Amino acid sequence: MPTIKDIAKLAGVSQGTVSNVLNGKSNVSSKKIQLVEKTALELGYTINERAKLLRKGSSQILAVILPNILFKPYVDFFMSFKAHAESHGYSVLQYITNDNPNLEKDMIVQIKSALVAGIATISCLADAPTYYFENVFPPHTVLFVERKPNTDCCYIGFDYKKCGHDLAIQALNKNYSSVSLLTGNLTFSNELEIYQAFCESIQKNGSCRFTHIQTDMRRKSQNTLQLFNSAAPLNAIFISNYGFAETVKDIWKNFYSDVKLSLYTVSPVFTMPENDFKKYELNYRLLGKESASQLLLQIEDSTSSCTKILNNYGFRDWFDKCLLIKPAPESINVLTLDSPEASIMQNLSPLYTAATGTNINIAVFSYEELHDIISNLGNHPIYDVIRLDVTWLSWFANQILFPLEDIDPNINSLSNRYLDGVLQSYSIVNNKIFALPTTPSIQLLFYRTDLFDSVILKRMFQEQYKRPLAPPTTFDEFNKISRFFTKRYNPASPVEYGATLTLGSSGVACSEFLARFFSHCKSLFDDNGNLLLNTPEAEQSLNELIELKTFSKPQYNNWWKDTAAEFSQGNAAMAILYSNYASDLLKHSSKIIGNIGCTFVPGNNPVLGGGTLGVSKYSEKADAALSFIKWVCSEPVSSAATLLGSVSACKQTYENYELIDAFPWLELVKSGFSLSKHYRAHQAFPCTLDERQLMNIIGKAVKNAYCNATTSKEALKIAQQEYAQIVKW
Fold first, then answer.
1. Number of other residues whose CB lies within 10 A of the CB of residue 25
2. Does residue 573 sit in the same domain as residue 473?
3. Cis peptide, bond prior to residue 409, ω within 30 of zero
4. Residues 6+ apart with CB under 8 A from 52
5. Cα separations in angstroms, 276 against 180, 243, 252
6. pLDDT tens digits, residue range 103-130?
7. How far from 44 is each of 4, 5, 38, 40, 602, CA to CA, in Å?
8. Which of 120, 143, 158 represents a domain boundary (last residue)?
9. In angstroms, rounded to a whole number, what is the distance separating the alpha carbons of residues 542 and 37?
10. What pTM, to 2 d.p., does this model score?
């Protein structure tokens, strides 16, 4: 097998240089990096990772011990734990005990020899800390999950007593006379706490009889049959683990389908609707993320050990009774934009129809068509629900929408469900709520991690610009990086262009300009309401945009869907994109999956986009229209829509790590709305100008300067004058 010495000899460099290159260090010239990498490839050299670990004495490896990987809660936990650990530079080893104590003891010995940095364990051992700590694992490097040992140690889990109590309350509220509780082994603390709380709550009502059966992976089918063969008929079965619940469901439907029965189960969070059970949800993906985060914190600081109890989600109802109107109208007409969200709404609305009996008719129009219809809505009184762009709300709210307080005086009670900063931009005009946010989005900067992490490219950039290659924090840096990755200026670039550019309509072109302008200023207006286009900052912003012309493809993109398609094909290093179009980067045809990085746009003051839903003032079904809007904008529906490619305004969506793991940029989105401090309309007079009209004025200036019809300064001067002619205070 070739060695570092062999590579150094053949390449004509020192062994230290070879070592630095092979270990990913960029303190070597780009020419030597290329030479060493080529030589190592020719010799078939591979790094001995085991030898590296032995020299270091520890590793960037974590171990996870699970009861099994057949039950969805543990799959969810592990996937989220692994994703978070890997994002912090750690790899993860998985060990499966099948709840066999002897097997777990053997695994502890194996893990010790693997030199792991820390362990997260759902242990089946009766005296677990003894076995872990006697094997020389320092207490702060071991995190117990779900099953809490009797001794003081680092632990994270849910409130299982509340879980048992809430399940029992369901039985009592339904006036069941006979129920059964199926749990796992009561030596496990979570199972015992559920059992004890359930018993205590049920026994307060003597009219409800209940039986209890313990089971495990090997006996679950046999024990379920015993349940169904018992003498007393059951109204419901309550189950402590979703894995057991699936077995109960299968036996019930295959052999006892004539038995009328309700199944309740403790369950992981389901993003899409699932109707076999009444689910009491615990967020196991959040548990995985929090466990990884806590374990890494303990590894870094041994004094940070703690006991952490996460909130139970409980019974998440897709159809909260308060949203349903009786009697329900036959149909509701929805006016919306031709977008991915429209297709998702069409796919989800049959669920609403099935629950309420109200058909949802969705009329889809282009951006321009939608604006024309809304501008003359009195001629189109057929619509009940109106989708408005966020830039239209301040102008149209009083003209075409019902204030939602006039329909539901308690509408403000929904405000706590939404992300900070969302309602102010997407719902409120003149201190009244006119709409609820459905697809709020922000501009984000996407980049190719494989390019930005390349040792050779990082070194080349350092040599050329005397600064590290990293995602840009200013648009001057953005343009320099774009030039570096444009093959026309750097033949060594793996991609043709440094960045994408979206300039289709005047409104779209304005968005590209505003991304740059708001990196320099927080508002388009001064304190006296004067538009700030005739300023050095505005001219600098437009020049920064025009400079990108030579670092992007000759024909710019017309819409952000086109931008997402271009970036997904791997022809550009960076793209600025609204978050509600980012899911297109993961389509089956994408060539960059696994290599997508994301950060805030330079300036950390992102432009807002997306839409909001209101009730037409011409609707004769205002109550039902608002009911549908509440349903669409509720957390379960918004989370499901996000999984299908939309976005959500609900806080709880951003704790759903099935979504975060699928779309990592959502971590940025949740804080982006409060981060955005810019104003497109003057705040003292928010309704005196149609924002779309202002955006068209600015967009025309952008496109005129971009095509060299005029200078940046002259184009902005003309826009300033055009604005002065139409504005009326």
1. 13
2. yes
3. no
4. none
5. 18, 13, 11
6. 999 999 999 888 899 999 999 999 999 8
7. 11, 14, 10, 6, 42
8. 158
9. 42
10. 0.86
Does 665 map to a domain?
Answer: no
Do 195 and 165 share a structural domain?
yes
Percent of residues, the chain, with pLDDT higher than 70? 90
What residues does 430 pair with on adjacent strands?
none
Q: For position 145, which CATH number holds?
A: 3.40.50.2300
Helix (H, G, I), strand (E, B) or coil at 727: coil
Q: Are residues 69 and 124 in the same domain?
A: yes
The whole-angstrom separation of Cα 239 and Cα 676 is: 45
Between 321 and 329, name the one with better pLDDT. 329
Both tokens assigned to 674? 């409060």
Residue 53: pLDDT band (50, 70, 90) is very low
How far are the Cα atoms of 575, 613, 617 from residue 687, in angstroms, in the given order? 33, 18, 18
DSSP SS3 for 429: strand
Q: CA–CA separation, 409 vs 144, rounded Å? A: 47
Distances (CA, A) of 610 to 304, 307, 447: 41, 40, 22
Q: What is the three-class DSSP state of 652?
A: helix
The tokens of 469 are what?
């290659």
**Residue 163, CB-side half-sphere exposure with 13 Å CA sphere:** 32
Does residue 325 share a domain with residue 427?
yes
Q: What is the pLDDT of residue 24?
A: 67
Q: What is the CATH number of the domain that holds 331?
A: 3.40.190.10
Which of the 8 DSSP states describes residue 662? H
Residue 302, in any domain of the structure: no
Q: Describe the chain by its helix, strand, coil percentages, rounded to 5.
A: 50, 15, 35
Instruction: Give the range of the structural domain holding residue 181, as residue numbers without chain letter.
Output: 160-282
pLDDT of residue 318: 83
| 711 and 573 fall within a common domain | yes
3-state helix/strand/coil string of 130-196: HHHHHCCCCHHHEEEECCCCCCCCCEEEECHHHHHHHHHHHHHHCCCCEEEEEECCCCCHHHHHHHH
For tokens 């207006």, the residue is 525
Given strand 262-268, what is the order of strands in its sheet? 209-214, 178-183, 236-239, 262-268, 278-282
Are 223 and 268 members of one domain? yes
Instruction: For the beta carbon of residue 214, count every other beta carbon within 10 angstroms.
Output: 16
**8 Å CB contact between 429 and 396:** no
Domain's final residue, options 98, 125, 158: 158
Handedness of CA 467, 473, 476, 481 (dihedral sign): positive
- What's the CA gap between 418 and 648, in Å, rounded? 9
Average pLDDT over residues 510-528: 92
Return the pLDDT at 680: 55
Strand arrangement of the beta sheet that strand 91-96 belongs to: 91-96, 61-66, 118-121, 142-145, 155-158, 307-310
User: What backbone phi and psi angles, to 5 degrees, belong to 556?
Assistant: -65, 165
Q: Could you tell me which of 580, 585, 538, 547 has the C-alpha nearest to residue 566?
A: 585
Is 551 a member of any domain? yes
Rounded Cα–Cα distance for residues 419 and 674 (Å): 8
Same domain, 450 and 366: no
How confident is the prediction for the chain on average, in pLDDT? Answer: 90
Q: What is the CATH number of the domain that holds 42?
A: 1.10.260.40
Q: How many structural domains does the chain have?
A: 5
Q: Is 29 part of a structural domain of the chain?
A: yes
Could you give the 3-state DSSP secondary structure of residue 555?
A: coil
One domain, residues 352 and 422: yes
